[in-house]
Write a structure and sequence with these properties.
This protein has 276 residues and is α/β, with parallel strands linked by helices. Helices cover 40% and strands 14% of the residues. The protein has twelve helices and seven strands. The structure holds adenosine-5'-triphosphate (ATP) and magnesium ion (MG). Adenosine-5'-triphosphate binds next to helix 1 and helix 10.
């Protein structure tokens, strides 16, 4: 039986493109024929609203799994896109950071829930909040891999080193098999020297981890969420759309190389052929 590979999309820095990456990758991976679950672990619920759901009007959310112990299958909803399910966030999640503190196995609650649905999906993506609190810790405990969106800007590398240290701590204490799956540069501006400089620095320090695909700064990517649409629906020929489609293909290629059974990604989907 195929077991889902679980990826946490994390960076403690705010506004670097975590949610944009999680939601659009989820959509393109599903469009490539994978069964995908997107879990929104941020109380801002941006991933939830960017896919068209009202965070104030959901019967259940990931909060109920974390705090009340509800099965993930009970909070998960179809996203309205073939192959993509959503475990939405709600505003209640803001309290979870504190409410989780006295609970048993507080950092493993998501992991236990995710393990029970691994046979239903090929990929589980977890959108993390911009902090290293209990919600992110739950995501890192549940994940096999971390995917790091990195904004191409001054001091990007310092933040990356800090995140690396946190991941090492998580490996030591919470989840020994967690690994960095890859780093993707976001809001990349080819005309700006700084962007290229960051790219070179990251490549030098983290060889093999930087994705070849870079996500350009593209206004269409920032407009799509307010329409409740992914970039694949909002403007499928934009540069942002092409980049996320290509990132999904590169990711599937990496997954095929690294998965033991090679079942997560079939070769037919590694070409990045348009599927819209
Ligand atoms: P937070 O830490 O608050 O959760 P985040 O890391 O999830 O933020 P996003 O919400 O994905 O970051 O992006 C921050 C803002 O930048 C959003 O308004 C988003 O629409 C915009 N944005 C993200 N990626 C791009 C891009 N490649 N080009 C232009 N705008 C982008
Ligand atoms: Mg976000």
């Amino acid at each position: 039986m195929v077991k889902a590979r679980v990826l946490a999309i994390a960076n403690q820095k705010g506004g670097v493109g975590k949610t944009t990456t999680a939601a659009n990758l989820g959509v393109y991976l599903a469009a490539a024929g994978r069964r995908v679950l997107l879990i929104d672990m941020d109380s801002q619920a941006n991933a939830t609203s960017s896919l068209g759901f009202d965070k104030h009007n959901l019967p259940r959310s990931i909060y109920n799994t974390l705090v009340d112990g509800k099965a993930l299958a009970e909070v998960t909803i179809p996203s309205g896109r073939d192959g993509l399910d959503l475990a939405p966030a709600s505003v209640q999640l803001a309290g979870a950071e504190v409410e989780l503190v006295p609970l048993m196995a507080r950092e493993h609650r998501l992991a236990r829930a995710v393990d029970k649905v691994r046979d239903r999906y090929d990929l589980v993506l977890i959108d993390c909040p911009p902090s290293l609190g209990l919600l992110t810790l739950n995501a890192l405990a549940a994940a096999d891999d971390v995917l790091i969106p990195l904004q191409s800007e001054y001091l990007a590398l310092e933040g990356l080193m800090q995140l690396r240290q946190t991941i090492d701590l998580v490996v030591g204490h919470v989840n020994p098999h967690l690994q960095i799956f890859g780093i993707v540069l976001t809001m990349f501006d080819g005309r700006n020297n700084l962007s290229s400089q960051v790219q070179e620095e990251v490549r030098a320090h983290f060889p093999g981890e930087l994705f070849d695909t870079v996500i350009p700064r593209n206004v269409r990517l920032s407009e799509a969420p307010s329409h409740g649409q992914s970039i694949r629906e909002y403007d499928p020929t934009s540069r942002g759309a092409t980049a996320y489609e290509q990132l999904a293909a590169e990711m599937l290629h990496r997954l095929a190389l690294s998965s033991v059974e090679g079942t997560v990604a079939g070769p037919e989907h590694t070409s990045g052929a348009p599927s819209a």
